[in-house]
Amino acid sequence: MKRLYLPAFALLLATCAFAVSSNDAVNTVITSNHFVYEGETYTPPNVAIEYEDKSYWVIPVTAGQNVVTYFPVEAQTGQLSSSRATNRGLFGLADGLRELQRLKGSISSNSGVEWIFTQTYQSFFNEMALELSDGVYKLNTVESTLKSSGVEVDVSALRVQLNSLSSDAAATASKISAATQAENAFVTEPSSLAFSALSGSFGEVFDSISQMQSQSLIYKSDLDKLKQQISVANTDAQTKQQLFALLEMPSQLSSLRSYSIYSTQIKGSIDSAFSASSVRLDSLLAEFDNRILKNESYGLIFGENEKIRKETGFLSLAEAKSAILAKESRQAWENQLKVRELEQDYSRASKFYDERNFVQAKKSAQSAIENAVSVYKAGRKKEAAPAGISQDLLFKVAGILVVLLALLYLFNNRGKLKGALTSQPEGVDIYG
């Protein structure tokens, strides 16, 4: 029971060694940013991938059953990797690991094919090596029996073939053991080195089984020739039957054909899966770049923006746009040209974002930010005298006021004026 807990405990220790956990990496990509579309799914990584002396949590994002792209988060800093060369290596390893696990799952559910990198197959080839060694003694028995009957046969070539097959079977068992260990190492601690070891060890097993199958066919052909020679030999029928029984193909060698078929099918599936993975790397990398633009565009349009906050006091472009273009304040801004451009660029940015044209969305959002800042720098319009009062009108009003004042004076002094006008002057005697 203790052995069963060791791999899990080792994996737990490895996870604790990272400053950033798998869940932290998922939160960075899924929760704290806007890389993923609605309806897409993600799988939290169980193991970190090592690449160029650094460890990364590589998160696959899928649409249906297909991987759209990966997000590599450095396990020590929590930063998203921006190096295309590094990402190419990481994506290749992550996709290779995913394909290997998918392939094993499909083979396990398919009764017609068996995964050969197991303890069962290692034991099979070890047992084959022992059985073929016993076959050499049977050949010696056949040879001595025929000689005692006066029949000369040469089984030395068959002995050499059986000894060679026995050695190859033992070597194949060792190669399967090495391949199993390499597979486990790649699955638990994926890296370029581990993947290379996996590919190499798998290839050695495939080649070894294929070579053994070819050798077994040659051995069977030569064995049939010996049987033919015995069938016409001058010896009794009972002896012939006993010799034929000794010359039956070893049972393990007869089963090799089925295992060779499994090996060929698995090799074809692995080669096809890894080849397809290599071909789609460019597409995965291009989509990753596109998701970076998506997140940047979203941030410029809807997220908090330092330039907007510093220059306008608002937190985001969306907030500044709403305030500037509000019905009650739209006409109050001095720079009406930039007000119109802000409206146009913001509309374009939103439209391009919805259309997933993030290059243009980013450009339009950046222009909209500059427009909003320009509007705020120019400020609001200054208050002016009421429109429609001309200088001529002012003179006319002043003249009317003068006339009114004169009339008012006359009205208030009408008694004095009336007396002055109606009284006669005293007579003067010019002769007196």
Describe this structure in words.
With 432 residues, the chain is mainly alpha-helical. Helices cover 69% and strands 6% of the residues. Among the domains are: 19-110, no CATH class; 119-249; 304-378, no CATH class. The chain has helices spanning 2-16, 22-31, 84-108, 119-148, 156-188, 192-231, 237-246, 251-279, 281-302, 306-312, 317-324, 336-354, 358-378, 391-412, 414-422, and strands at 41-42, 49-51, 54-63, 66-74. Residues 1-11 and 424-432 have low confidence and may be disordered. The chain crosses the membrane at residues 393-411. Keywords: Membrane, Transmembrane, Transmembrane helix.
Question: Summarize this, please?
Answer:
69% of the residues lie in helices and 6% in strands.
Which labels suit this protein?
69% helix, four-stranded antiparallel β-sheet, single chain, 4 strands, 432 residues, mainly alpha, disordered C terminus
